[in-house]
Amino acid sequence: MKRDQDYPIAAAFIDERDTLLTGTQNGKLQLWNLDINEAIRFICGVGGTPITQAEWSQYIPDIPYTPPCT
To answer: Torsion over CA of 35, 36, 39 and 41, rounded to 10 degrees?
Structure first.
């Protein structure tokens, strides 16, 4: 498989726009889940320890602290 044939050349939404199907020139198909709530559950499930209030204040002090994954 050549690297230049591994990029999507076709895409279509399925399942009421919650899933995107892409296809490459070499025939590879891939499904992409676009459901935001499912993505949040996945990220919060594998993300480890959420950002603390102290870390939040250090890295994004201009935005009020909102604990993620609660």
So the answer is: -110
pTM: predicted TM-score of the whole model, two decimal places: 0.56
Are 34 and 17 within 8 A, CB to CB?
yes
- Is the pLDDT at 22 greater than 80? The verdict is yes
Euclidean distance between CA atoms 21 and 33, whole angstroms: 9
3-state secondary structure the chain: CCHHHCCEEEEEEECCCCEEEEEECCCCEEEEECCHHHHHHHHHHHCCCCCCHHHHHHHCCCCCCCCCCC
More confident residue, 2 or 32: 32
- Asked whether the predicted pLDDT for residue 59 surpasses 70, the reply is yes
